[in-house]
């Protein structure tokens, strides 16, 4: 048993020593680009204009017209004096004078101006992440023929009309079945 194992080991080593390797060219039959789909994130933004009311300073009022204040105070004081009696007459005169001065000022200068508003436009920008699907080329599927047999592989570049192949020749063991010779391209096998 040990002899048979030793003989098999030596025979295998002998056959391996007999192997010969060389480079040859095989004819390229077709080249197809190979793609993969990838997700590419990007930011998508848009701008929109919005109207916003904005307060504008009211126009300056004219300086107080002293004549309106004095005249209003005198008229208000006279009216207040007519209404009251005793010590109430003095208070009514004072209240009438102050009220008359305020009314006289409003008549002479006009009422206070409310604030004014104008529409102002402002740009509002909103962004979001979106994902685009893109096709990226990963290589080429190359079909080639070598001595009547067809093979295919994926290569990083288009090899052109020929592709280099590494050929290894190893003698077959005694008594092994020999495959039939390759058929020429385009012929059908007939029995």
UniProtKB/TrEMBL annotation:
A GO term from the CC aspect: outer membrane
Keyword Signal appears in the UniProt entry: yes
Coiled-coil positions: none
Location of the Glycine zipper 2TM domain: 68-107
InterPro entries: Bact_OM_lipoprot/Surf_antigen, Gly_zipper_2TM_dom
Cleavable signal peptide: 1-19
Cellular localisation: Membrane
Record keywords: Membrane, Signal
Principal place of residence: membrane
Pfam families assigned: Rick_17kDa_Anti
Protein name: Glycine zipper 2TM domain-containing protein
Source organism of this protein record: Ramlibacter agri
Phylogenetic placement of the source organism: Bacteria, Pseudomonadati, Pseudomonadota, Betaproteobacteria, Burkholderiales
């Amino acid at each position: 048993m040990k002899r048979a194992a030793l003989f098999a080991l030596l025979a295998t080593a002998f056959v391996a020593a007999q192997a010969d390797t060389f480079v040859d060219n095989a004819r390229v039959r077709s080249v197809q680009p190979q793609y993969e789909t990838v997700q590419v994130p990007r930011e998508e933004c848009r701008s929109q204009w919005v109207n916003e009311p904005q307060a504008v300073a009211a126009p300056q009022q004219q300086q107080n017209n002293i004549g309106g204040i004095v005249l209003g105070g005198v008229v208000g004081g006279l009216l207040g004096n007519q209404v009251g009696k005793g010590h109430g007459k003095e208070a009514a005169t004072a209240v009438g004078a102050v009220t008359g001065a305020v009314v006289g000022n409003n008549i002479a200068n006009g009422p206070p101006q409310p604030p004014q508003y104008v529409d102002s436009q402002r740009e509002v920008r909103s962004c979001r992440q979106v994902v685009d699907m893109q096709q990226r080329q990963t290589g080429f599927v190359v079909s080639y023929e070598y001595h009547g047999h067809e093979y295919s592989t994926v290569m990083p570049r288009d090899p052109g009309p020929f592709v280099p192949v590494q050929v290894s020749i190893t003698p077959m063991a005694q008594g092994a079945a020999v495959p039939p010779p390759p058929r020429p391209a385009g012929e059908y096998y007939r029995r």
